[in-house]
Amino acid sequence: MKKNLSLLLAGALVAASLAGCGPTPPAAAPAPAGGGDTAATTAAAGGGDAPAPAAPSADAELNLIIASNQTSLDNPYSYGMDKFKEVLEDISGGKIAVTVHKGTLGENENELIEKLEMGAASMVVASPGFMTSIGVPEVDIFSLNYLFNSFDHWEKCLDGEFGEKMKTTVSEKTGNNFRIMAYWSSSVRDYYGKKDITKPEDLKGMTIRTQSSQVQQDFWKACGAIPTSVAWGELYQALQQGVVDSAENDYTSFMLKEHHKTDNGKHIAETHHDYTTRLLLMNGHFYDGLTDEQKAWIDEAVVACTEEERQVVYRMFKESKEKVIADGAVVTNFEDLDIDAFKALALPIQDKFAADNNMTAELEMIRAAE
Predict the structure, then answer these.
(1) b/e for 51-72, b at 16 or more Cβ within 10 A?
(2) CA-CA distance, 320 to 69, in Å (whole number)?
(3) 176 contacts: CB under 8 Å, gap ≥ 6
(4) Is the dihedral of CA 306, 109, 117, 154 positive or negative?
(5) Nearest Cα residue to 67 out of 57, 53, 55, 49
(6) Residues of the chain with pLDDT > 90: what percent?
(7) Cβ neighbours, 10 Å, residue 151
(8) pTM exceeds 0.85
(9) pLDDT (average), residues 120-133
């Protein structure tokens, strides 16, 4: 299974370019690797580069490397990873040392997944989408628009029966190569473009840079828009030059990249179509090889860092919105949109996805939790 999965993952990484099973992590952090964002990379990569990570401790009995693809020190992932290091090193009394990489192990999520499989990283933050290419199509449920109605609804589902079911599915279908340690978020995504919108028909004929997921593409096509692929790092220029009419992402991400300062990005409509899910992943074989004491310490640190990451997400949603308005962006609030019309287009896509992937029960779990 591991050999087959490795081959599949390698193929997925090649396509996306348009963690070992041993119980011992690397003794030293690998040299920083560059890499550009892909269209599937959705969180912000703005801000200054993170300082070089400290060398692993020679005195620790276990050295862990945790990484995300975000170089911005203001990104919620940054706060979450720092909290993981702080708590784990404290409660273990220094027996476990943590090296944090903020984009310095690779700015492309696919690079991080590859390093996790090779054992060059112990834990990474990544979007779920890559798993659709390695035999876990079920994770695309996280890409369904209007699946969650609020951050509270999202938390209730991910921290409840649905979240546990997805953890089991991922572990089983990847041969335990990927273990979901926790669910993080990069906030809720909204439309931004060259004009105001209040209903789906307002998008007719407009190009929109969106995620590569098929269910996402189907939704925007149903709105009458033309989904377009543009690398995240190239999107500012694409908006500025009129290559695309619009895009969709969370306030913090496009604020850090200043997309709202372009003519084709300054009109924001709070569609709130996607309460995003990001995975804090570890190799399951590596985790299973730890002592019970080490597992308990790591589990406690994961709980603490997940709470920190989420609280930063929620705080930055408010602060980022205030910032883009102060910069001159025009915002149409959630309450002033015909959200029911958008949801009416999303629900059939949800139903079809659930039927095609034998996930009707999981979809009902989510809807029942509203």
Answers:
(1) eebeebbeebebbbbbbbbbbb
(2) 20
(3) 283, 284, 285, 288
(4) positive
(5) 53
(6) 76
(7) 17
(8) no
(9) 93
Task: Return the amino acid letter for 233.
Answer: G
Would you state the structure tokens that stand for residue 239, as one six-digit string? 């908006």
Q: Give the helix ranges, DSSP H, for the chain.
A: 2-16, 76-91, 109-118, 151-158, 161-173, 214-222, 235-240, 251-256, 284-288, 292-326, 339-356, 360-368
Angstrom distance (rounded) from CA 139 to CA 143 = 8
What is the phi/psi pair of residue 231, to 5°? -60, 140
List the beta bridge partners of residue 164: none
Amino acid at 6: S
Q: How far apart are CA 69 and CA 111, in angstroms?
A: 9
**Strand pairing of 179-184 and 330-332?**
unpaired
Torsion sign across C-alpha atoms 190, 340, 157, 19? negative
Partners of residue 192 on adjacent β-strands: 247, 268
Q: How far apart are CA 125 and CA 142, in angstroms?
A: 15
Residues facing 180 on adjacent strands: 281
DSSP-derived secondary structure letter, 52: P
Average the pLDDT over 246-251 and give the result: 97
